[in-house]
Description:
With 212 residues, this protein is mostly helical. Helices cover 67% and strands 4% of the residues. A two-stranded antiparallel sheet has the order 1-2. Strand 1 and strand 2 (29-32) form a beta hairpin.
Amino acid sequence: MWIFLGAIVVVAVLGAFPELRPQFEVKGAMKPMGMVDVIQVFMLLAGSALLIFTNVDAGKIGKNEIFRSGMIALVAVFGISWMADTMFAVHTPMMKEALGDIVKAQPWTYAIMLLLISKFVNSQAAAIAAFVPLALGIGVEPGIIVAFAAACYGYYILPTYPSDLATIQFDRSGTTHIGRFVINHSFILPGLIGVFSSCVAGYALAKIAGYI
């Protein structure tokens, strides 16, 4: 445990002080190693140290339920991410044009469009980056965009995100499951309630503050 905690502390320190990270020349300028790479290096190093210096039976790791669940989620999310990225990259111009007309006519549909796009790309940041500039460009009020920011969370619509898959694998009681029609799974109602209530609250606050 202390090896793992030590690796976390080192990662946190390197994140707080970029000057401590290795420097590499990128396009003529010296830049520190990215935090994604730092995390990968030290987590792999911690895993190796645990195998070497503790009494871990490496043969049992693959049989561990947590490890198997994590691997299932990992493989699943890679496939879904590649598929979504390929589809969205090819059809982005068409989708922007079609969705833009709808949002321009009915600004409240911005929340629905953002929700669907976030599911397509499996990323809140990517959904915001793709759709917010379009919404601003066609005249959607900034207050509407801020009020419905919570709609960028659409991972749960289809149970393909690694945390969803891992949760299903971890739950030995069987109460967390994917239904017969796929979309009727254990996450759909909590997700819809959370996003809907957040959007309503955001709209109300924006209205009270005079942003809409």
